[in-house]
Amino acid sequence: MNDTELRAVVLATLKSIAPEVEESELRADRPLRNQVDLDSMDWLNFLMGLHEQLGVDIPESEYARLVTLNDIVAYLTAKRTAAPKDTPRA
């Protein structure tokens, strides 16, 4: 999955939590929560949705790194790239 496809999954997941979001109005370099006015429960549901859609674990200790859309896509890209290396081999 390339960055464009990953970004589409992130935005679709966001829209499932906040259907009023206008993708064209989002700034990828600005804090996402502020742009879409998500409370902490909505933000948690968004992150859990990303986990469900992509199979990427996002520990609570990492939440502070996920501020902008760019941050989220970069984080998920890195985690998805690293995942096969972390998989135990038989």
Question: Your description of this structure?
Answer:
The chain has a single domain, classed as Non-ribosomal Peptide Synthetase Peptidyl Carrier Protein, Chain A (Orthogonal Bundle), CATH 1.10.1200. The protein contains 4 helices and no strands. With about 90 residues, the protein is mainly alpha-helical. It is globular and about 30 Å long. Helices cover about 60% and strands about 0% of the residues. It has helices spanning about 5-15, 30-35, 40-55, 70-85. Helix 1 (about 5-15) crosses helix 3 (about 40-55) and helix 1 (about 5-15) packs across helix 4.
Structural class: mainly alpha
Helix content range: 55-70%
CATH hierarchy class name:
Mainly Alpha
Mean pLDDT: 89
Unreliable sequence segments: 85-90
CATH architecture field: Orthogonal Bundle
Percentage of residues in strands? under 5%
Number of continuous helical runs: 4
Number of strands: 0
Order of helices and strands: HHHH
- Tell me the count of domains: 1
**Outline, from the CA principal axes?**
globular
Q: Radius of gyration in whole Å, from Cα? A: 13 Å
> Any idea what the CATH superfamily is called?
ACP-like
Largest sheet: none
User: According to CATH, what is the topology?
Assistant: Non-ribosomal Peptide Synthetase Peptidyl Carrier Protein, Chain A
End-to-end gap: 26 Å
